[in-house]
Amino acid sequence: MRKLPTAVRPKSQGFRDNREAMEAALGVISEALAAARAGGGEKYTSRHVARGKLLPRERIELLLDRDGYFLELLPLAGHGIRGVGSGAGVIGGIGLVSGVECLITANEATLKGGAVNEWALKKSLRLADIAEKNGLPSISLTESAGADLPNQANIFVPGGQTFRDLTRRSRLGLPSICCVFGNATAGGAYIPGMSDYTIMVDGGAKVFLAGPPLVKMATGEVTDDEALGGAAMHARVSGVSDYLAKDEVEAIRLARQIVAHLHWKKPAGPDLATVEDPAYDPDELLGIVPSDLRIPFDQREVLARVVDGSRFAEFKREYGPTLICGWAHIHGYLVGILANNGILFSESANKGAQFIQLCNQQGTPIVFLQNITGFMVGRKYEEGGIIKNGAKLINAVSNSAVPLFTVMTGASYGAGNYGMAGRAFDPRFLFTWPNHRIAVMGGPQLAGVLDIIKRESAARRGEEVDEKGLALAKGMITAQIERESQALFATARTWDDGIIDPRDTRSVLGVALSAAHNLPVARSNEWGVFRH
Fold first, then answer.
1. In 373-426, beta strands by DSSP E
2. Is 53's pLDDT higher than 90?
């Protein structure tokens, strides 16, 4: 593999302007993350601590290996959505516990008592999907008031998948460990009940299908929390608890002990290459992408600051140049890479489809770097078969058996999102940069289409165009698309697994690749029909 050259000039005005815009965007993300980490706020976190409890993030910190990592996922789910709160009341991610990569979740008990809202459910289901698709043991740090009852219409029916997924992972041999620190009521009681290992904190855990008030209403029986569902009762009488911990610290120690006793081993993976840092400073990623996404940039400059040794073996460089394809190593893992360097033409789509087939034949995971406005349109390109050729790329992505990883470094518009492994195409992990924009098309373009349609419609009816009304409609649709295409809007709705600092791209992909190799990488030569 040859070392990639660079044309980046950090002292240039354009670079400095790009960096300033990216730093501003990172500042907005940092503020949102701070809000998520604050939980329910000072009042409720202080009350929680005063009860002798650890904060949810403190529980995670104690659970993790001292020198291990924690890649938080979907940290801004629910951000800006009324009544939800940043993070949606659930903390989740991949971390090392007793040397084992685990999917860790924790209820944010300081936010509405850890009650599960619609977006907490969506986030939890995605986290469960990550655990299953990547073959990860899971640890749940549970303290929740149960479902957000006023929102039950959006929770009850899809919420059943939580329990289905938990038991399916058990069948697949993916252990689940549940530590109960506080309430786990109603449907939430089935989390410890269906986990492979359950730990309850004496005097803290309260696990029952119905609390004392509901029991009295339903049966007339008078009881209290401890007798009905306390940790001691479940450890000594019901058998729901496998371990009775004297306090939260011991519960976490027991969880670490259980993981250690799993004797978890990854399957035989690829022979890792020697890990090398990129030859160029990843800090320069902040100044490479223009603040105006209509201005192109060379994704090779991104690759040069992400892949090992900045070395890249490019495939078909002279053909279909708007899609870069080739092989590189990231933290020693060999990966195939597809990166947009412009709009997708027939040639680039065909090249991408062939390259994906080659990676599947080899059993090589694929990384997509998205910055795409879509497939080329126009009479010439329709006659040239852009639909059938674009379909080949989408077919190849859809039926790829090797793990896919997507990083959105810029725009993601139209069917380009599909051809480059957007969320609907089930990549193992999908991350975005803070400058990312996603929509069917840009706001001005959509407003322009609206203008043409309205004018043609008025002409057919023989009417004058209401210029004032049309201008108002165009302004409104442009503002709406601008708001709904921003990275924060997308991540709040779980369209990605998190917004990351561009400088962390290499590390984030390294963790994701390592996690994916908890399962053997499949090879495949099976595809749907390719239209020729």
1. 404-413
2. yes
Q: Which helix (H) or strand (E) holds 62?
A: helix 56-63
Q: What is the pLDDT of residues 242-268, one digit of tens each?
A: 999 999 999 999 999 999 999 999 887
Measured at the CA of 390, the angle between CA 385 and CA 392, to 5 degrees, comes to 100
The beta strands (E) that lie in 374-474 are given as 404-413, 429-432, 437-439
What is the number of other CB atoms lying within 10 angstroms of the CB of residue 482? 15
Of 36-45, 69-78, 213-222, highest mean pLDDT: 69-78
DSSP class per residue in 80-114: TSTTT-TTTTEEEEEEEETTEEEEEEEE-TTTGGG
Residue type, 472: L
**341: how many CB neighbours lie within 10 A of its CB?**
18
Question: CA dist 58 to 53, 62, 187, Å?
Answer: 10, 6, 26
Say if residues 183 and 144 touch (Cβ distance below 8 Å). yes
Phi then psi for residue 422, to 5 deg, are -70, 180
* Block residue for tokens 């939580």: 162
Q: For residue 526, what are the CA distances in angstroms to 325, 357, 359, 520?
A: 21, 9, 13, 18
Both tokens assigned to 48: 């929680």
Look up residue 13 and give its DSSP letter. Answer: H
- Three-class secondary structure assignment of 187-202: HHHHHHHHCCEEEEEC
Q: What is the 3-state secondary structure (H, E, C) of 449-516?
A: HHHHHHHHHHHHHCCCCCHHHHHHHHHHHHHHHHHHCEHHHHHHCCCCCCECCHHHHHHHHHHHHHHH
Q: Name the nearest CA neighbour of 413 among 356, 375, 368, 366.
A: 375
- How far apart are alpha carbons 295 and 254 in whole angstroms? 54
Tokens of 362: 């080899």
Collect all residues with Cβ–Cβ distance below 8 Å to 31 and sequence separation of at least 6.
Answer: none
**pLDDT tens digit string along 380-400?**
999 899 999 999 999 999 999
Tokens 């998948």 identify what position?
Answer: 161
Give the C-alpha separation, 436 to 407, whole Å. Answer: 10
State the amino acid at position 369 in one-letter form. Answer: L
